[in-house]
Amino acid sequence: MDRILIRGGARLSGAIHISGAKNAALPLMVASLLTDETLTLRNVPDLADIGQLSSILSVLGVAADFQRSETATHTMVLRAKEIASTTAPYDLVRRMRASFLVLGPLLARMGEARVSLPGGCAIGPRPVDLHLKGLEAMGATIALEDGYVVASAKGGLKGARFAFPFVSVGATENLMMAASLAKGTTILENAAREPEIAELGTLLNLMGGRVEGIGTSTLTITGAARLGGADFAVVADRIETGTFAMAVGATGGEVELLGARPDHLGAVIPVLEKTGLTIAATNQGMRVKRNGARPKPADITTEPYPGFPTDLQAQFMALMATADGTAQISETIFENRFMHVPELARMGANIEVNGQTAIVSGVERLKGAPVMATDLRASVSLVIAGLAAEGDTIVNRVYHLDRGFERLEKKLTACGADITRLKD
Ligand code: UD1
User: Fold this and answer.
1) Distance CA 103, CA 244 (A)
2) Alpha-carbon distance 222 to 239, whole Å?
3) Residue 313 C-alpha to ligand 1 middle, in angstroms?
4) 3-19+236-422 and 22-233 share one fold
5) How confident is the model at residue 291 (pLDDT cuts 50, 70, 90)?
6) Angle formed by the axes of helices 238-251 and 313-320, to 10°?
7) What are the pocket residues of ligand 1 if the criterion is a CB atom closer than 6 Å to any ligand atom?
8) pLDDT for res 122
9) What does the pLDDT read at residue 9?
10) CB 3.0-4.6 Å disulfide test: which of 44, 126, 164, 282 passes with 190?
11) Is residue 46 a contact partner of residue 69, using CB atoms and an 8 Å limit?
12) What is the predicted pLDDT for the residue at 119?
């Protein structure tokens, strides 16, 4: 298993190209199940999760061609001329929760689907009850058999009004896609508002669908008899952007994040500014800078968009580990999303966890140590800590990183970091 070796202490300086957003690209790829025409997605990141979803889609009958490019962005061409199978098997689905998104589109197009209950990052129980309740509201019959969700809607799905009891990104996406091929109009209340949802809504409209209320918490979706192909470029990854900004916060230096969308980091930028970063929008993205002094403390609470994203909580904790003072970090989206805490502690961080809140008392300097990645975002928080630490850090279980960060070592090395992958 690959490991990453970081010799800490270098300031970051230069430019980093921000990749397309993984969490946008995944549902967009799944939307290929809704049409027999070709869907071309540009600016797709080259990540293990993207490859994993391609494998699942190809079992279902989608011809997926990933055209990698060394110089430009990568393109994914998908075509589900015919659905070859309506079963998404356990072996593939268990590795990634986002694969559960195939349920709604398969059911809407074929009137039946059998999808294994998902796995994914080990961050709390992460049930799929909202996905199922929403589809039931649209007329689906759902049973659980041998770890599989077996869904049918023989006469087709019907538009319905469904109010989410709390915000779910995945369930909103699943229902948006299902509703786009349902009969009649679906109204989703308390829907997620993440930029990734807006991306999916925009794509569905390009495919001939009708999604209204994009960017608000009420989505009105009028079903179409059929949808067509489209050509669409994936938005820049706001989580990757925030991660690199926090890395600069931890090491000091100045980096331009090319292609970044500061408007998608509305809750993050003011917090980073509070910690002492200078952030400015540029023609090409945004510039992040920190001079000299230790980061100042700032408190955060994770919330659905437009709040502070849970996917940046671990990285922010790594930044606060060396703050000149005490910061309070509260996680409200996932249970058990503090698995990076004991690993950061191995590097000398002083963090006390009390239920869903962590109190981080910044130390002057972290110390390099062997650490273990436990999930996708936790693993990159250890990289940030390692970049800022004194001495060598080895991050084990790097496959978590490869799920969500494209060419991480290369991007950081180009900015002066001393980071290498050790191949076993
Ligand atoms: C997506 C993101 C993930 C991010 C998360 C929250 C993708 C591929 N993944 O995950 O990176 O951390 O949003 O921003 O886009 N829940 C239920 N029942 C359900 C669905 C969700 O109880 O049916 C709970 C979850 O356990 C969690 C909360 O709702 O506690 C939010 O989950 P959700 O927004 O659905 O996250 P994902 O779509 O899985």
Assistant:
1) 34
2) 31
3) 15
4) yes
5) confident
6) 10
7) 23, 26, 97-98, 124, 126-131, 168-171, 196, 310-311, 333-334
8) 53
9) 94
10) 164
11) no
12) 64
**Which CATH number is associated with domain 3-19+236-422?**
3.65.10.10
Could you tell me the pLDDT band of residue 123, with boundaries at 50, 70 and 90? very low
Spatial separation of the C-alpha atoms in residues 357 and 345, rounded to whole Å: 16
Give the bridge partners for 144, in sequence order.
149
Nearest in space to 120 (alpha carbons), one of 95, 145, 137: 95
- B/e letters for 149-158, b = 16+ CB within 10 Å, e = fewer, are bbbbbeebbb
Q: Which of 36-45, 120-129, 190-199, 274-283 has the lowest mean pLDDT?
A: 120-129
Residue 160: which of 190, 130, 183 has the closest Cα? 183
Domain boundary assignment for the chain: 3-19+236-422, 22-233
Q: Report domain 22-233's class.
A: alpha beta
pTM of the model: 0.97
The model's confidence at residue 329, banded by pLDDT at 50, 70 and 90, is very high
Ligand 1 atom closest to Cα of residue 129: 23
